[in-house]
Amino acid sequence: MQTGLQSRIYLAGPFFSDGQNERLATVKAVLDQNPTVGYVFEPAKHQQDAIVAEFGNGSLVEAMKTPQWQNATYHADIQAINQADAVVAMLDFDVEGGNPRPDEGTMFEIGYAIANHKPVIIVQFTQDDEPLNLMLAQAYTAFFWGQADIANNLSQYDFINLPKKLVAKPVI
């Protein structure tokens, strides 16, 4: 679903802590600089405000516990992935807490995108020796690893032609 010479991007990643939100904001800012990106869907910015007001009494934390919010959010995110040309997924989860494993929701979004033939571009700020799961290693189109790679190269990545960009990371 290309929109002229620019792509629609779904930005996947956890947004439950200040650190996660800062990293997502960095990726969004870099994508906004990319001339081949026309639109970035950020799930964190689409939190079902009417449902939060009605079922969460204005509290997102309370609304998130309700089946109404969960159902609406799931379907909105699936629709946004379906409308995207590519998914950019941040693997960093609870880095500040010492948990290098990716967020389960982000892994679902990656799997759904792959199953629907959407290219997945992975970003990971932490440059650790944590191995990459072989399923991710075989599925991604491009991988930007480390703050400098994200800042310097994601803004120039060609989201129209989507060239392969591999990373030398251990695989298990």
Automatic annotation (TrEMBL):
SUPFAM superfamilies tied to this protein: N-(deoxy)ribosyltransferase-like
Organism of this sequence: Periweissella beninensis
Entry-linked PANTHER family: 2'-DEOXYNUCLEOSIDE 5'-PHOSPHATE N-HYDROLASE 1
InterPro entries linked to this entry: 2'-dNMP_N-hydrolase, Nucleoside_deoxyribTrfase
Name of the protein in question: Nucleoside 2-deoxyribosyltransferase
